[in-house]
Amino acid sequence: MNNFKFFISIIFFSFLSCRENKINNQADSNPILIDSELTIKKSLTIIKAKVEKQVLPDTTVNNKLMLSNDKSLKTFYLNEVKTLERIRESPVVVFINKDNNEYLIAYQYEGGIKNSYDCFEIGYLKNEQELNKVNNYKTSEESFITETNIGLGTSLEKLKSIKGANYEKTERDNIIILTYRNADFENSSFLKRYNMPSYFMEFTLRENKIEKIKFGFDYP
């Protein structure tokens, strides 16, 4: 009786094994199944590439002054400010830090709301001496940094550890410019929230140290 059960078990498992091999062979030889698998892999690769190309956006300076937020100015500077023409391509407001060695330029695009800024530029005042000759606003801020703790003097290594390596690189003389972009409006909840077409962060480095930062929305 036991020998009979053993014999039946062998036949049963042999049948299952043959059936499994047949199914696998059908999948391997079936072009529809193969095409479906390739399509799924291709879609996942495209999605991954889009996610990797979208930079983690910074939107504030010193966790006070925010992009496209006219109310945030009062948390950064209490007094009234006026925009200047012909300093940059758009009307701007120029702020200076406490020690007079850093500047912050806030861009107000044409047609924008008063005190609402669409782009920020941070740099060393020694590199932009003409800013001392215009109407600027002295602040009590020690320095100007983004919410991901990027400021002047940040190393290239630290920058890449925070923002990744998906940047456009330009070199001239001993200067490196790294630009990160988020330009995929259809797949960016961030851009849709601000209703802006694209976002960028541009870092100018000398001797692998940041000496200028510009970030915000591209002019619509």
How would you describe what is shown here?
- The chain is an alpha+beta fold and 220 residues long.
- The protein has two domains: 2-53; 60-217, no CATH class.
- The chain is built from five helices and ten strands; from the N terminus they run ααββαββββαββαββ.
- The protein has helices spanning 2-29, 31-53, 73-76, 156-163, 189-194; strands at 60-61, 65-66, 92-96, 102-107, 119-124, 137-138, 168-172, 175-182, 199-206, 209-217.
- An eight-stranded mixed sheet has the order 6-3-4-5-10-9-8-7, with no helix packed on it. Strands 1-2 form a two-stranded antiparallel sheet.
- A hairpin with a 5-residue loop joins β3 (92-96) and β4.
- It is globular.
- The N and C termini lie far apart (85 Å).
- 22% of the residues are buried.
- The model is unreliable at 1-13 and 38-52 (pLDDT under 50).
What would the keywords be for this entry?
5 helices, disordered N terminus, globular, alpha+beta, single chain, 220 residues, two-stranded antiparallel ribbon
User: How many DSSP helices?
Assistant: 5
* Shape, per Cα inertia axes: globular
What does the largest sheet look like?
8 strands, mixed
How many strand units? Answer: 10
Helix content: 25-40%
What structural class should be given to the helix and strand makeup? alpha+beta
**Radius of gyration based on Cα positions:** 28 Å
* String of helices and strands: HHEEHEEEEHEEHEE
**How widely separated are the two ends?**
85 Å
* Sheet with most strands: strand arrangement: 6-3-4-5-10-9-8-7
Number of domains in the coordinates? 2
The mean pLDDT is: 84
Strand content: 15-25%
Low-pLDDT stretches:
1-13, 38-52
